[in-house]
What does this fold into?
Amino acid sequence: MAIYQIVEIGADVLREKAKIVSEITPNIEKLLENMADTMYAAEGIGLAAPQIGISKQVIVVNVGEGLVELINPAVVEQSEDQDVETEGCLSIPGVTGDVVRAARVRVQGLNRQGEAVDIQAEGLFARALQHEIDHLAGVLFVDKARKTYRK
Ligand code: NI
It folds into this structure.
């Protein structure tokens, strides 16, 4: 088990487009494990690889319904109806903001076995997936927030 240091806003890696994972090697499996450990240690509900300084398309999410690991994830469908909720990010400590997002999304990607996964998500799970997938495009919630608050 390894806990990575979380990279904070201002770091270039958070603004880069993360690279597609072309092959799921033991290093990627280790990355998934260490990312989950890091997320739990920081009491987050999601983490994207750029947040630990690794520019690869890998995310982990756990909103209390079990750990979801996704490689090369993408939102392939989203509902027209939207919700606004307050979000935070482990890379932007002390700041929260109200972000409008699709209420429901369909996400496709690969699991650690390299199998295609197809997820229908709503509520907090949908929001967390959108937030983490944004990280892979170099987008942070403060870019989208209609209002931000400093704790
Ligand atoms: Ni974040």
Q: What stands out?
A: Residues 26-41 form the longest helix (16 residues). The CA atoms of residues 81 and 103 lie 6 Å apart. The mean pLDDT is 97. Residues 12-150 form a domain with the Peptide Deformylase fold (CATH 3.90.45.10).
